[in-house]
Design brief:
heterodimer, A: alpha/beta, Rossmann fold, six-stranded mixed β-sheet, 12 strands, 37% helix, globular, B: alpha/beta, 2 domains, 14-stranded mixed β-sheet, ten-stranded mixed β-sheet, 20% helix, 37% strand, disordered N terminus, disordered C terminus
């Protein structure tokens, strides 16, 4: 459902190229993990797919269900079923979680032909989702992420994912900053939400998360491209050997081009 | 409606004030004489004066104002729709600065609360003691104009220990007139020891009528008294609003004021709070929402003269179109005023390229054991916030509407009267909905 083809992207304000030809295909029902050292372009890839305005795609394409989404605004991509769980979820003082979620749910529902929910129906709907990430109902009436701890913010992202029911979820370092209990809760939530009809892309530094969520594929990103792909065993190899042994791949490929 | 036409230039505004027919009230002769003297030595402001550097007064100097010699009238429905339910029996209505008893209602305030129009209390001891004694005419022609021309005003007095059972609405309405006119609302509030009152001061102009209103308000908060003062400026889009509220706070008293500026083509709000003893707590918050060619200027003074004061000023501004906001917040901490905790923040959300914001926090601190925080920010939305909301399915416009709404809402959270809070939420909503926010450059191509 997601096909990333030879994707090149620059930081718009500085002109620096971050993505240097990424290729990735995610099919229904699959979980992909993208790993790699700091600064390799993992988070940028997630943001570019979600439509972040700070980046400009200079070459290549992103197809979602066979159609290019490069011309779509971030909200239109969300309507199509894309979801990005942020590495650093943004605080929005003055807007309650419920307000944001109902607004989001209904706009996405409308564009995907699902029925919109009135506030009462929405309250019922949302209760079940709270349990999924073991979230306190008080959170609903608090301003979005405002004053939340790092762990609470991450849990809130997965809660939003549960409510919005995306077709493809990009989870950007959702595991970082979580203690072991929170990690388990978040991972359980993601596992329960994932089914045969949706895809998940996990972006992570650590193999730790992959003990809880078993990926079908593992990709290593270095220097703005995917330099190696493999099955879940690749993650263990990385845990053991680090990324150094792959650095040369990035350079050789880079020069070969 | 007949009027006294007068050609307007700054000096002629002086003349208009000086020759306005004195309402037969002899009790105010002393006030008139004092103002006449002050006015003789006070020039009309211009932009070479530091305090008026940023404020374009053309709207005043190019308008031919008159003073009305008849009270204005309005259809009842136009008046009643502005009544707040909580003040059903605690309401004063003024039209163009003149009292309208038939729309006012003052039965619901309980013991020890005197409410009415100043004209009705010529012999009242409190009026004699405080009217015109708190106001500061120094260097300000507008306050002098009011002193020379005011015809009536609101009077609110709470005896020792009296608690007003309902919020008092002081409703100021301005009518249409063939020629632009000047209205001079006046208000005197005296809260004796341990008394408590909430005041909703509302200024409303209908559609696009042209007038200048100069509301002068004197407030005295005695020991352990509390005042919650909400000021809503909903003047017409062609109006000029020059308000001068001044408040003296005594020991252990609290004065919390929230000024919401929505209307007027040109407004200049000059609130002052002056500390008269130790252990006081006061707030001077503001919210300004402007667009078109509106100019909204706030020049405030928080004067800490004694030790142990907590003061708070959050002034939030949203500018769209060619709107122009000016903020100058003076905080004085006098030499012996120790242990002062003063917070000031001016946050500006500038939505358009043609909007303009001037901000100047001005702290003059002569004591050494004080905590004064101040800050001023001017900015558009954080792109990351907009992207976050967009990634959750909101359009860019909707995301910005939500963020503007959230930005503005913080200031009015503290308004305690439910219907007024609701009204303000609606006003914020109307503003954010009406103002389509310019789209940022689209980057992904």
């Amino acid at each position: 459902m997601l096909e990333i083809k030879n994707l090149h992207a620059i930081v718009e304000s500085e002109g620096i190229e971050i993505l240097k030809g990424v290729n990735l295909t995610v099919n229904k029902g699959e979980i992909h993990a993208i790993m790699g050292p700091n600064g390799s372009g993992k988070s940028t890839l997630a943001k570019v797919v979600a439509g972040h305005p700070n980046y400009e795609v200079t070459d290549g394409d992103i197809l979602f269900n066979g159609e290019s989404i490069l011309e779509l605004d971030p909200d239109e991509r969300a309507h199509a079923g894309l979801f990005l769980a942020f590495q650093y979820p943004v605080e929005v003082p003055g807007v309650t979680n419920t307000t944001l979620l109902r607004e989001s749910y209904n706009t996405i529902a409308a564009s995907r032909g699902r029925e919109e929910l009135d506030p009462l129906e929405f309250d019922d709907y949302i209760q079940g989702k709270l349990e999924l990430v073991e979230m306190n109902p008080d959170f609903l009436e608090r301003s979005v992420n405002t004053g939340f701890s790092g762990g609470e913010k991450k849990r809130n992202e997965i809660f939003q994912m549960a409510v919005l029911q995306p077709v493809l979820s990009l989870l950007d370092e959702t595991d970082s900053g979580l203690d072991i209990d929170a990690l388990r809760i978040v991972a359980d939530g993601i596992n329960k939400l994932h089914g045969d009809d949706d895809g998940v892309v996990l972006i992570t530094h650590y193999q730790r998360l992959l003990n809880y969520i078993v990926p079908d594929y593992v990709h290593v990103m270095i220097g703005g491209k995917i330099v190696k792909s493999g099955g879940k065993e690749l993650a263990f190899e990385l845990e053991e050997k680090g990324y150094d042994w792959l650095e040369s791949l990035a350079t050789v490929n880079g020069e070969a081009k | 409606m007949t009027a006294h036409p007068t050609r307007i230039e700054p000096s002629i505004l002086h003349k208009l004030a000086m020759h306005s027919p004195d309402p037969e009230n002899r009790a105010w002769t002393v006030i008139r004489e004092k103002c006449m003297m002050k006015l003789n030595s006070t020039p009309f402001p211009h932009r070479k004066i530091e305090e008026w550097r940023f404020t374009d007064l053309k709207t005043i100097t190019r308008t031919e104002f008159t003073s009305l010699d008849k009270a204005g009238t309005l259809p009842a429905s136009d008046i009643e729709k502005y009544f707040i339910p909580e003040s059903d029996r605690s309401r004063l209505v003024f039209i163009n600065g003149r009292f309208h008893a038939n729309y006012s209602s003052i039965g619901g305030l309980g013991k020890g609360v005197t409410v009415g129009n100043l004209r009705n209390f010529p012999k009242n001891k409190v009026v004699q003691e405080y009217l015109n004694k708190l106001v500061n005419y120094e260097g300000d022609v507008f306050t002098c104009f009011n002193g020379l021309m005011f015809e009536d005003g609101a009077f609110i007095h709470l005896e020792k220990g009296a608690k007003a059972e309902a919020p008092i609405q002081v409703l100021n309405l301005y009518t249409d007139s063939a020629k632009p006119f000047i209205a001079n609302p006046r208000m005197l509030v005296v809260a004796e020891e341990e008394s408590d009152v909430t005041i909703i001061e509302d200024h409303i102009g209908l559609s696009d009528n042209r007038y200048m209103t100069i509301p002068v308000c004197e407030v005295k908060v005695k020991q352990k008294a509390h005042i919650h003062h909400v000021r809503i400026q909903r003047d017409s889009t062609e109006a000029i609003h020059m308000s001068r509220p001044i408040t003296y706070v005594e020991k252990n008293s609290e004065y919390h004021s929230y000024t919401i500026t929505l209307g007027a083509k040109l407004s200049r709000n000059e609130p002052r709070v002056i500390q008269e003893d130790e252990e006081v707590n006061f707030t001077l918050d503001g919210l300004v929402l402007i667009d078109g060619e509106q100019i909204a200027d706030t020049h405030s003074v928080m004067d800490h003269r004694f030790s142990h004061a907590n003061s708070h000023q959050l002034h939030k501004v949203v500018v769209n179109g060619k709107g122009h906001s000016i903020f100058n917040g003076k905080i004085f901490v006098r030499r012996d005023a120790q242990k002062i905790d003063s917070f000031q923040e001016n946050r500006n959300l500038l939505l358009s390229y043609d909007g303009l914001v001037n901000t100047k926090p001005q702290l003059e601190i002569f004591a050494d054991d004080v905590l004064c925080s101040h800050g001023a920010t001017i900015g558009n939305f954080e792109p990351e916030e907009v992207f976050y909301l967009q990634s959750r399915g909101m359009t860019e416009e909707k995301a910005k509407e939500v963020l503007t709404y959230a930005f503005a809402l913080e200031t009015i959270e503290n308004v305690k009267v439910e219907s007024v809070h609701k009204l303000l939420v609606e006003e914020v909503h109307r503003y954010t909905k009406a103002n389509s926010i310019p789209k940022q450059k689209k980057v992904i191509v």
